[in-house]
Amino acid sequence: MTHEQLLWWQSGIIYQIYPRSFQDSNGDGIGDLQGIIQRLDYLQWLGVTAIWISPIYPSPMADYGYDISDYRGIHPLFGNMDDFDQLLQEAHNRGLRIILDLVPNHTSNQHPWFLESRSSKENPKRDWYIWEDARPDGTPPNNWLSVFGGPAWEWDEQTGQYYYHAFLTEQPDLNWRNPEVQQAMLDVMRFWLDKGVDGFRVDVMWHMVKDKELRDNPVNPDYQVHMATYEQLTPIYSTDQPEVHDLVQQMRAVLDSYGERMMIGEIYLPIQKLMTYYGPDNNGAHLPFNFLLLSMPWDAQKIASAIDEYEHALPQRGWPNWVLGNHDQPRITSRVGTEQARIAAMLLLTLRGTPTIYYGEEIGMRDVPIPPDEVQDPQGLNMPDKNLSRDPARTPMQWDGGEFAGFSATRPWLRLGPQYKRPHVAAQKEDPHSQLHFYKKLIALRQSQPALLVGDYIQVHADHQALAYIREASGAPALLVVLNLSHKPCYLAIQHRTISGRVLFATDETLVGTAVVNRIQLGGDEGMIVELDEDE
Ligand code: NOJ
Q1: Residue-wise DSSP of 347-380
Q2: Residues 167, 265: Cα–Cα separation, whole Å
Q3: What is the Å distance from ligand 1's center to 120 Cα?
Q4: What angle do CA 322, 350, 496 make, to 5 degrees?
Q5: What's the Cα-to-Cα distance from 141 to each of 151, 152, 165, rounded to whole Å?
Q6: d(CA 308, CA 302)
Q7: H or E stretch at 529
Q8: How far, in Å, is the centroid of ligand 1 from the Cα of 66?
Q9: Does residue 453's CB lie within 6 angstroms of at least one atom of ligand 1?
Q10: SS3 call for 136
Q11: Is any ligand 1 atom within 6 A of the Cβ of residue 204?
């Protein structure tokens, strides 16, 4: 494959926006669609090519938009449909694609479908959700747990049955075994595709179908008390059922009928299982999200083996992808530190496949500690002793050095970190050595080098400090990427390859242009990309 043959989502770079926290345009302390429009020029300047926006639909906000009460509207907090149409238009004018969040697994308990479903056992929509009788002793039908704590079954007094909710009680799961549900959700997809959206990030794709017999999940022998209570069981019957793939293929068929649209699946599963979501004939999700770098210890050897395993497990024609952070996980800079954040960026943007950047990553935003009485995230509120709140990674984007960071004219919905500690776009834009410029340059490099866009991935070295790999495409210069994942200096002697080339990009800018021959030396927290001489 040559880089000219790549589709937009293969050659592109995705940028995730958490809309409550990106830019407030109307002074209510909550980000909105007009705010995103104001910042499109920034995103274009940065060089990303697609935006994934977390849910913007009407919602009671029990789970900050992941509890949807109308799949075809816009929450007034974010604006209205005219604002959305304008956003789509303005993004497309700038060559930026729009990926919406689709949440097919569950609705809000305020969605009209659920209100109907719970109104009586005879209601035609009763079977749109998962209703079950109690066991003879009155307890729930099985032992399944909610991801957000407690049992996954909620008793409904009025109709005398339990309903299933993998997340909050306010988020009842749809019954995807019902063909009417399938058609209703495929129609939702068509509604947005007709408007011109370029794709969907599909929430909890691996949850969509549950075991028909509702068998008990087995106990997880590796559970430890600091973990979320959900992890007490291994969810082999409540998630990742074989029937899910038929549904994914139906969704894919809808996308394919529109041409170059795409679907990313949110799936937290081990590598081999993750791969099945590409579909038997590459007719599943275009990109099953690869969360390896989110969950791995920051260890060169472990990361190198994980990359290798992922690369080898990919199905033929399956396009890879990489992620460092999202709105559910601690920020990368807080996980690995400011210096290593640049190494992480180099990894993200030089591995094979589509990278996704989480807003603020490019300026080194950190998790902001949120005092207990300000916690908003239901996951944090439901399990207060476990430190599981996702708020710290969802704080407002830091645009400038003002009191509210240029995010809003008023106090934002979630606090910012102390003013003197906040990295921000305005200062970093002025400083050519800033992390923001580092990202911008890396992005430009990725987009201009065929080896990075389509080249093979060849691992050439991994030890307890550093890893190195070559990206190689025919007809273009091969690149050697060398990353020191430790704070200590290191020497690398690459085995079985003679190395000779010139530094193209480095954390230490003074190295750019210098020659590299065989032995490579890196300071702590350093990385470099070497353009290899042609005869190598
Ligand atoms: C995954 C989303 O990323 C997360 O934020 C949400 O709470 C759950 N799905 C439930 O929709």
Answers
A1: HHHHSSSEEEEETTGGGT-------GGG---HHH
A2: 18
A3: 29
A4: 115
A5: 11, 10, 13
A6: 10
A7: strand 527-532
A8: 6
A9: no
A10: coil
A11: yes
Length of the chain in residues, anyone?
A: 536
Contact 144, 153 (CB under 8 A): yes
Residue 189 Cβ < 6 Å to ligand 1: no
Indicate the pairing of strand 466-472 with strand 456-462.
Answer: antiparallel
Distance 327 CA to ligand 1 centre (A): 9
Whether 63 lines ligand 1, by a CB cut-off of 6 Å, is yes
Chain segment 101-147, per-residue pLDDT in tens: 999 999 999 999 999 999 999 999 999 999 999 999 999 999 999 99
Catalytic residue IDs: 203, 266
The rounded distance, in Å, linking the Cα atoms of 161 and 180 is 22
pLDDT digits (tens, 9 = 90+) for 413-444: 999 999 989 999 999 999 999 999 999 999 99
Structure tokens at 109: 């308990």
Q: Report the separation in Å between the CA atom of 247 and the middle of ligand 1, taken as the mean of its atom positions.
A: 19
What are the tokens at 9?
A: 């989502």
**Cα separation of the two ends of the chain:** 22
Residue 529 — very low, low, confident or very high, per pLDDT cuts 50/70/90?
very high
Pocket test of ligand 1: the residue of 174, 323, 328, 382 to mutate, having most ligand atoms within 8 Å of its CB, is 328
Helices 81-93 and 179-195: crossing angle, nearest 10°?
Answer: 60
Of 347, 344, 350, 312, the closest CA to residue 451 belongs to 350
**Contact at 8 Å (CB) between 370 and 392?**
yes
pTM: 0.98
Q: What residues contact 255, with CB distance under 8 A and at least 6 apart? A: 189, 193, 199, 200, 261, 262, 263
